[in-house]
Amino acid sequence: MTTLNRSQETSKRASVARESALSVKWARRREVAQEVFRNPLTVLGLIIIGLFFLMALAAPLLTEANTPDPYQSPRDWSNISVPPGEAGHVLGTDATGGDVLYGIIWGSRLSLQLSLTVVGFTLVFGTIVGSIAAMRGGRLDNLLMRVVDVFLSIPELIFALAIAAVLGPSFRNIILALAAVFWVKYARIVRGEIIRIKQAEYVAAAKVTGDSTWNIYRKDVLPNAVSPLVVQATLDMGNVVLIGATLSFIGLAQAGLTEWGAMVSAGQSGLLAGEWWLSTFAGLAIVLWALAFNLVGDGLRDVLDPKTEGR
Amino acid sequence: MTLLSGSLAADFGGTTDAVVALHGVKVHYPVKEGVLQRVTGQVRAVDGVDLSIPRGQTLGLVGESGCGKTTLGRVIAGLVAPTGGDIWVDVDATQHSEIERLRGVATEDRSPEDQASWKSLESNHRLGSMSRDKQSRYRRNCQVVFQDAFSSLNPRQLVRDIVGRPLRVHKEASGEDLDRRVIELLERVGLDSQHLLRFPHQFSGGQRQRISIARALALNPEFVILDEPTSALDVSVQAQILNLLVDLQKDLGLTYLFITHDLGVVQHMSDRIAVMYLGQIAEYGPTADVFNSPLHPYSRILRDSNPTLEDSLDTVKWDLSGTVPNPVNPPQGCRLHPRCPVARAECGWSIDDVLTDAERNTPVVFETISRVERSSDFRATVSFSEPEQAKKFAKRIGSLAAHEALEQPIRLDDKLVEVSFNEVSEAQLQQLKDGRWSSCTRTQNLGALPEL
Amino acid sequence: MARSDDWLLRVDDLSVHFESSKGVAHAVDHVSFDIYPHETLALVGETGCGKSVTARSILRLVPEPPGSYASGSISLRNGDGSVTEILTATERTVRSIRGDRISMIFQDPGKALNPGLTIGRQLAEVFGEHRMSMILGNAGFDPEKPSRTATKIVQQRAGLLERGVYRLTHLRAPKALQKSIDDSVMEALADTGIPNPRKMLGSYPHELSGGMKQRVMIAQALACDPDLLIADEPTTALDVTIQARILDLIHEMQQRRGMAILYITHDLSLVRQFADRVAVMYAGRLAEIGPSAEVLASPQHPYTQGLLAAIPRPATPRGQLAAIPGTVPQLIDPPAQCHFASRCSFAAAACHEVTPQLLTIAEKRDVSCHRFDTASRIGVSPQDMPSAATLGGVASS
Known about the structure:
The structure holds 3 protein chains of 3 kinds.
Chain A: H1 2-37, H2 40-57, H3 59-62, H4 100-136, H5 138-153, H6 156-167, H7 171-198, H8 201-208, H9 213-250, H10 260-271, H11 277-304, H12 306-309
Chain B: E1 17-33, E2 38-54, E3 58-62, H1 69-77, E4 84-92, H2 93-104, H3 112-125, H4 132-141, E5 142-145, H5 159-169, H6 175-188, H7 205-217, E6 223-227, H8 235-252, E7 255-260, H9 263-269, E8 272-277, E9 280-286, H10 287-292, H11 297-305, H12 351-361, H13 363-367, E10 369-374, E11 379-384, H14 387-399, E12 411-413, E13 416-420, E14 430-433, E15 436-438, H15 441-446
Parallel strand pairs in B: 3-7, 3-8, 5-6, 6-7
Antiparallel strand pairs in B: 1-2, 1-4, 8-9, 9-15, 10-11, 11-13, 12-13, 14-15
Helix pairs in contact in B: 5-6, 5-7, 6-7, 7-8
Chain C: E1 9-20, E2 23-35, E3 40-44, H1 51-58, E4 67-77, E5 83-85, H2 91-97, E6 102-105, H3 109-112, H4 119-130, H5 132-138, H6 148-154, H7 160-169, H8 173-191, H9 197-201, H10 210-221, E7 228-232, H11 240-257, E8 260-265, H12 268-274, E9 277-282, E10 285-291, H13 292-297, H14 302-310, E11 359-362, E12 365-367, H15 375-378
Parallel strand pairs in C: 3-8, 3-9, 6-7, 7-8
Antiparallel strand pairs in C: 1-2, 1-4, 4-5, 9-10, 10-12, 11-12
């Protein structure tokens, strides 16, 4: 009978369809990735980031971890302030005989720790706050946004400085301070995006299907709000290290810590005496890290621009 | 309060069954100003609409931007809550007349049978009083196709998920069964299984609209609201989609509410038409009648403004003057009267009209007004800084159509001008002939559209 | 092809290409037509047919990457009989033509107006630029020997300091200048039916309705009495009652000033009312061109026929609109054939192999369709040709 055959055929097509659904989604992601790789600057940034990540993860393999605290450079007291290339110290030593290369390598772990923790927390917390504000609206929105406004009225650096100073000088407190300050940015971005998206007709269409607010948020609102967040998060991976370095430069980290900012600070006094290697290499590390993430962030922004998205 | 015997909601367009009946539906948005967000007025997007949507037919809802037709569509779809009025669902003529009868009886005066009857009607048919179950059933039964097919489809979802979503949400199907049903829906609207796993941006405008329609049909609704479904499409694509909609209506026995500003399309698609202006219905009737012999100046103007390929280029064309009034403060009497080419004394002239006229046409005089003391919307004393300007103002009113509406001659007293118009109540929609309704005061009095 | 020599603007074999990641898109493909003085020519077609790109090419407004003028010329006849080649002229020449001899109004008036300046200020810039001598004269200056500062003030290019100094050193001149500027702006605004021009001078665009903004744009475009006005879908974004009034206004201004209008639209019903001639475009090419009444009453190209049949009319039974099957082809690297062949009910082998040329089938009526051509002229065998067509008794050439 023809009806039976037709529905059998439909079923078959349906099962084929389901198998390829996942591959279609991945195909799309691959397309986006290809777009990203098309920009040579973005690729450069990705390479640099890759190298830093490798360095950070492979630190114990590259150099022997110092005891008791791997984040203090092993002191070679017989070779203080040695220029690069001498006495087995590829990048030289600092005023206490600490190996600069060791500092750079283990400093990358700290940078990774700092950026991932801060960005991870601020992204999640900021998104939650921004989402609540935008989805609920009304007085709650007003209240939350006024809180955000207060935070934003204080310059980020000074705010972080104040918090870190109050909490006491330590790397962990730098992380806390930055997290406390940076989250508002994401709250604002998310709120703005959600308010824009709520106007779109597909949200109204979803409501007409009878779906719950949570599902609409999950399936319609959030996925479309993600792009600017991804871009901002990438840029912040770089900026957080920059500001964190500034804070430790001022002295808000423990003494002698293999944190790039602290190293730049420690090497300052030596600059006049012509001992350039400590500050320079540490500074270079900071610059490269921030630059790499900025390049990738910009590249992502171009690709994820809504104008090209809706082709 | 609406005249019960003359409510448009009772007009079932020749059928015995209405999918939805609206009584005095209002949607007002508060206007908030200042630091403390005080409410200074209400935007009257929909301002008292009685309407019934006959089952199995297409009702066209026409008007220009700001008339409230989109908002009304969203109220019926359940996307926007009305700030006033009732919405009744699935009522037949008997039930409806019972509802109207009971509305006319004050709650205290109702007999126990009346009260029981009312309760029963409410819990079975009134949106807001029905059980959760029934309410959900109405939502499923009433679906919407939106205008801009690009923004009405989530750009990050596959067609399969977009069209299958209603089924998933209401737990009607899942897994392989879901896919099968989605393919069936796609085929019904002229697409097929190869489109299942694509994203919206991979389709043309016409195809996206088909996807939208497929989604709307997923739950087998009886009633579909089409909000400007073809306005963003090219003419040739529009023809395809309109043909599809007509076929679906025939095959599935659907009722359509077709909202649009395109007169050619609405004329083609609708059995009956409601013309809206500034939040209210100006005219209602069978399509051909409303177009060929309109009973409201606004319908006539809409028709005349719409260039077609047929009409002779010599017919006298009616014209609207001025601009759309502020929806926060609509004109008194008939809302069209400040712009209407045939407005006369009985149409609702008020103080606001002469002031707006002065602002627009005699700005020099307008600028010299120092104070306006109103005792009502129709009576006021206007103070000027110079007697010369006051005289000009009084003279100007004398030259307007509004002067016929004066209750007594204008009193000019040095720098003061006392103006007092006849009080006119709000224009009401009335049935003039069988099935033909108009809210134009003059047409109601004359029994036909006034001459230019 | 039917062409006489008293044209105002001649578009000859124009092709505009766009670079894209998928290839080269032929947005406009060998299009030729003339615009005569004082006439209204409507350029009609659906989305993507190339009408907007053609219009912008006339003012050389197509961004040149990714666009490029792949072939052809656009010639503007000057008052003294000489001809300016727009596509090859210097940037300076083109800029002097823009606004002065050829002007343009756009679909969305909101986007064409600067939201940060008052209407008075914006229009003053345009008027100052193009009506310098008149403004100076009215203010009591000698138009032949204007002082530099006065000129700059009229052009709205004088800074605060300069203006302040000028005000101190010249007693009544600055006021006279301002009044002269304001007067000419207000006159132009009143001309377009704006009720309170003085109030409009101090208003910002966001305070105005769509219809008002469009009137302002028309005033701006007509500031210097151009010979040709290009109107790119000027009323698509407006309500139908406002649309009627704006179109009447444009029409009225045309009568008074005698300019020609190139009217871009997708709405054939408007063509009937306002255009003398109509050119129908499809997929970057001209399908048909002729007097609008004739083309609408008896369309010759299958696409025009399909388009007219698809418009909902009272007489058409519901659900039986004659929809054109299929979709518009891609404009990327198009094959050498008739672009409409895949959707045409008359299509034959020749239609898929040879690009049709624009043929004159009657006085002032051109069609590009093989049905009006002969097998021998194209170079195919007779059985590959579609059924021949004649225009109501006039045999095809």
